[in-house]
Write a structure and sequence with these properties.
Layout lengths: L5 E3 L20 E3 L21 E3 L21 E3 L13 E3 L4 E2 L1 H7 L7 E3 L4 E2 L16 E3 L20 E3 L18 E3 L9 H23 L5 E3 L2 E4 L4 E4 L8 E4 L2 E5 L10 E12 L10 E12 L3 E13 L10 E8 L14 E9 L4 E12 L2 H5 L21 E3 L19 E3 L1
Parallel strand pairs: 1-2, 2-3, 3-4, 5-7, 6-8, 7-9, 9-10, 10-11, 11-14, 23-24
Antiparallel strand pairs: 12-13, 13-19, 14-20, 15-22, 16-21, 17-20, 17-22, 18-19, 18-21
């Protein structure tokens, strides 16, 4: 029986699969369509590592599919049609990683309300996009679309109010601005967004997510780490991994450390939300060139001091990707935010105005931080720009050097009106 390649149980009345099924190591085809009494789909079915075809259409009493299909490494075709509100009502995690996913399968998956995690990474979508019905996944907290051929995102994804993690690694065909929910806390989009238009919406999206995070903490209390699969973010605030340094990072420095002086009375400014921090990093040659994927991560030590070091905190993200084995990936940027409400009360005075961010790399893959930066985040845009003489928000056409002292640049920023700036003394050029 170990050599059996095809098993057709269409329409059988059994409530469970035969116990011997898991021992059919060579099985390639399994048809369970219209098994209307089938209630349990055992995890042991993942032992069928050569299975290519699986049909569970019209299994109206099926409450739970195996949560992780990654064990079915050869799975090419999955047929799932949901005809009952009770079908798969207990399913919380579903992985279709490395699968070719028909649009019909997604249509039916997206009518489930129970899944909290959905992994579609490393797969091929026949339509190259997600159905609009994704908004039905009202409980979804994590969605991984990394290394897929997706080229557009439906606007209805904005209704996923519980979504915390979104994976878009190597989604090189993705175009245009994304209407994503402000609930997102960790976006991994390294080596994505070939079109430069992503810069135009990233600031607005990050600001909305950051304000949402602050509101949640103030109303519900507590900070929550984000973990999904092999990706995680630990700390307060939100975390994005994107290609290229955002234009609006005001203070920048070569290397892995940056220091700035906070404005007077920063701690009583209700418009001051916190900090946007970023680090540009590149992979180095390492000893894991033959590994299918390597782990990598960045951390950031935050310090606030005056005459002596006072407040300190630490935030970090971690992930696993094949592009970091052998140093083949281009430079990427970690953008993270840190809320000022997280700073302890005893450090909220003009005595503590020196702010330092120091970035470190860790994991099995070797990385190097080559540039870093920080921007103060304000509720009002005019305060974000700060004093004109120190302005360093530049587009790709404006050089980052001493010439900026006479130039006011809004290139690449998402503004739709000029902010009110009290004094334009010394400004010779206005770039829009």
């Amino acid at each position: 029986m170990k050599n059996l390649k095809k098993l057709d149980l269409y329409g059988t009345t059994s409530q469970t699969l035969p116990s011997s099924t898991e021992h059919l190591e060579g099985l390639e085809y399994l048809n369970l369509a219209h098994c209307k009494n089938l209630e349990i789909f055992p995890e042991s079915i993942c032992n069928l590592r050569y299975l290519k075809f699986l049909n569970v259409n019209a299994c109206s009493k099926l409450l739970k599919l195996m949560e992780n299909l990654k064990g079915l490494q050869c799975l090419e075709e999955l047929y799932l049609v949901i005809r009952s509100d009770n079908c798969l009502s207990l399913l919380e995690q579903l992985s279709l990683s490395n699968c070719n996913v028909e649009i019909g399968v997604l249509d039916h998956i997206f009518h489930l309300r129970s899944p909290k995690e959905l992994d579609l990474s490393n797969g091929y979508m026949t339509a190259g996009e997600l159905p609009n019905d994704i908004y039905h996944l009202s409980s979804l907290q994590a969605l991984d679309l990394s290394e897929t051929n997706i080229h557009s995102m439906p606007a209805t994804i904005n209704h996923l109010s519980k979504l915390k993690f979104l994976g878009l690694r190597h989604c090189k065909q993705l175009r245009g601005s994304l209407e994503l929910p402000s609930s997102v806390r960790f976006l991994d989009a390294h080596d994505c967004f070939i079109s430069p238009s992503w810069q135009r919406w990233l600031w607005g999206f990050l600001l909305n997510c950051f304000k949402s995070e602050i509101h949640d903490v103030e109303s519900k209390g507590g900070w929550h780490d984000i973990q999904f699969g092999q990706s995680s973010f630990f700390g307060k605030g939100i975390s994005f991994v994107v290609p290229g340094m955002p234009h609006w990072i005001r203070y920048q420095n070569v290397g892995d450390e940056i220091r700035i002086e906070l404005p007077m009375n920063w701690y009583v400014d209700n418009d001051f939300l916190g900090f946007a921090l970023c680090s540009v990093y590149i992979p180095l040659e390492n000893t894991y060139r033959d590994a299918p994927a390597v782990s990598y991560g960045l951390g950031c030590h935050l310090s606030l001091y005056g005459d002596q070091y006072g407040f300190q905190d630490y935030i970090s993200f971690y992930s696993v990707c094949k592009c970091y084995s052998g140093g083949e990936s281009s430079e990427q940027v970690w953008v993270t935010t840190y809320p000022q409400i997280a700073i302890q009360e005893k450090y909220r005075s003009n005595k503590w105005r020196q702010f330092t961010a120091f970035f470190i790399c860790y994991g099995s893959g070797s990385l190097k931080v080559i540039n870093c930066g920080v921007t103060l985040i304000y509720e009002q845009k005019r305060k974000l720009l700060g004093s004109v003489e120190n302005l360093s928000i530049t587009c790709s056409e404006c050089p980052r050097n001493e010439e900026l002292l006479g130039k006011l640049c809004f290139g690449g920023t998402p503004i739709n009106e000029l902010p009110a700036i009290g004094c334009l003394f010394g400004i010779k050029i206005l770039c829009l």
